[in-house]
């Protein structure tokens, strides 16, 4: 394998719900010479408003964009609205589709509970459920999820849950763009249904996206791909963004 020469190696990164810049810490250690620019999700009342806020801070000339989980959906929505500003898009732990009905109901229950009882942080069982079965024994991963959640707090949780309830399915529209796309998913991600995975493959075939759209699935990995499989993800990042040839 040989490195591809580029003048600037920068990726703008949007985090997921209740995640901060620590989300990237493991892959940053491996991506030597590549800059990951963490972009916090704006605290707005809807996905559309979040995208509009980002439009004022992200580059106007084509740039590389990576989004994780909720940030993956936001990155997809941004790319769909401003396709001339995104050179390549990588979506991690998301499929640019709407939330499952069960997930919407769960989020509404959470919002009601927090409104009545307040928020005391993510429960350990919830943090564990975001990891693959074999990774649930790693206390440092669970603590990291809990620490990011605690740093952002109740106000951000309410804003992020409420603003992301209304998520239109934008997958096929996204795949119809001429922009290179890459989806990286965890094999044991409980937040992405088997139907969502099938829909991703079906839309890819229906739009005849072909080699322009890549889909990869990491084994022994849940929702937290950046933390659970950093070496695997780094290899995908280098190849997709053109900094490593295989």
Automatic annotation (TrEMBL):
Coiled coil: none annotated. Its EC number is 3.7.1.14. It comes from the Bacteria. InterPro entries: AB_hydrolase_fold, AB_hydrolase_sf, Hydrolase_4. GO terms for molecular function: hydrolase activity. The keyword Hydrolase applies. Residues 48-229 form the Serine aminopeptidase S33 domain. It is an enzyme of class 3 (hydrolase). Keywords: Hydrolase. Gene3D superfamilies: alpha/beta hydrolase. This is 2-hydroxy-6-oxononadienedioate/2-hydroxy-6-oxononatrienedioate hydrolase. It comes from Marinomonas spartinae.
